[in-house]
Amino acid sequence: MDTLNLLMDGFASALTPINLLFAFAGVVLGTAVGVLPGIGPAMAVALLLPVTFGMETSSALIMFAGIYYGGMYGGSTTSILLNTPGESATVITAIEGHKMAKAGRASQALATAAIGSFVAGTIGTALLVTVTPIVVKFAVSLGAPSYFAIMVLSLVTVTAVLGSSKIRGFASLGLGLAIGLIGMDPVSGQKRLTFGFAPLVDGIDIVVVAVAVFAIGEALWIAAHLRLTPTRTIPVGTPWMGKEDWKRSWKPWLRGTAFGFPFGALPAGGAEVPTFLSYVTEKKLSKHPEEFGHGAIEGVAGPEAANNASAAGTLTPMLALGLPTNATAAVMLAFLTMKGIQPGPFLFENEPDLVWALIASLFIGNTLLLLINLPLAPLWARLLKIPRPYLYAGILFFATLGAFSVNMQVADLWILLLIGLLGFALRRFGLPVLPLILGVIIGPMAEEQLRKTFQLSAGSVSGIWSEPLAVGIYILIAILLILPMLISFIRRSRGIQSDLVETVLGEEHEPAKHKAELAGEKEQRVGKDES
């Protein structure tokens, strides 16, 4: 009952004219950046961080949440009309959605994606309301050793799962942790990694890092692969669904939601795994399996629902534990830190009005997105015709302006350029970006918990595993790191054994084969003599 009352108070705050205006601006902007390939919600939020300095914290967070949800919506438009996923989470949507569009059913594909996103987002937000307070009660009881172990788990899982190589993932994480260490030691006051450069004494502002990695790095990477010709899109009318489309879509929407929310709430769960699982499940359960690969509507409905439900799940660890599980949540968490708000389990206790206004705005933003996306799908398709040089030149301009406005220091522009080049290098050599951002944000928080742990244990290393939960988490981390290597080793050893067996058997059968050939030749000669 208390939760319901708090949610009603949140609606009272979110429904004020100014917050409604920011929610509307957020969902429109989020849909736009989701539609445009290469521009995701993380980049949009990072670019807007400097603009939100003078705004009310609740209004800015509501706008960021609208951008986040809108980006999930908009990514399906690009996937369906262009076969170009804006994010990895919409890759599965492109498989069936683009085939439907080429078959003249683009409007039905866009409609089932939009309505499925609304259904999944609404159910996911309701689950967020239910689950998050429970997680908060559990998190408040945790000590510093357990909290440090949870942070290590989130860093390790994100680093080990993302990217094509664990080594590259940990290299990216190491860079992020190193950037997070720059500045003055909070306990001893010693300068760390400043190299005698005075502006680094206070550390590198997370806004500069986020803008550099997402905006500068991404813009340079896209420019390196720039196509000057405008993109050709499939024409589309107003999205609509027939009776048969509704009948084939509503169950995949619900199943996709069931897949998406739990994975979104897990560290490194993301939206890629649940969208894939949803697609495979719908293919097995469908009464029309022959249509998969040729434009099955279930292959759009289920994965899109899973994608948007995972977005709501992502906010659970961010609000309850102060741990982001994707890039957009990481930038939103950086905004809270920048505003002097301590993220974590005490956020609900210290800032209840802020948190519940944000959660209530998710219901409002979800409804606005449905009302906006259905009639305006043709307009979003026209955005794809903007020449890329104009688009990314504007991004670079606003990124530079935003980074300079943080501290009004020219040094920040040099730092922006250097970290932007680092972001470009990460993409060039296949290193994931998210571990770097999480290292910058979570690294100092983990250091604080580690120092508290040593203080409690009088400097003894055993204090790190002094709580049962911490021990369990470290065992889980060991399993996550060792199990894939063990499986790979077993597969390789089996492959070597099978090759050896084939070689031995081949050598053993070679004489027999030779004898059989001689016998066959002898029979042929006898037959010729008799004839």
Low-confidence stretches: 507-518
Q: Round the mean pLDDT to the nearest integer and report it.
A: 77
User: How many strands?
Assistant: 2
In DSSP terms (H or I, runs of 4 or more residues), the helix count works out at 19
Shape: globular
**SSE topology string:** HHHHHHHHEEHHHHHHHHHHH
Order of strands side by side in the largest beta sheet?
1-2
- The fraction of residues in strands falls at under 5%
Largest sheet: 2 strands, antiparallel
Domain DUF112: 20-438
Pfam families: TctA
Region (Disordered): 508-531
Keywords: Membrane, Transmembrane, Transmembrane helix
List keywords for this structure.
single chain, 531 residues, mainly alpha, two-stranded antiparallel sheet, 2 strands, DUF112_TM
Give a brief outline of the structure:
InterPro entries: DUF112_TM. A two-stranded antiparallel ribbon has the order 1-2.
Helices and strands in order, then pairings?
Layout: H1 2-14, H2 17-35, H3 41-48, H4 57-82, H5 91-102, H6 106-140, H7 144-161, H8 166-181, E1 183-184, E2 191-192, H9 206-224, H10 243-265, H11 272-285, H12 298-320, H13 327-338, H14 347-350, H15 352-383, H16 388-407, H17 410-428, H18 434-456, H19 468-530
Antiparallel strand pairs: 1-2
Region (Disordered): 508-531
Protein name: Tripartite tricarboxylate transporter permease
Keywords: Membrane, Transmembrane, Transmembrane helix
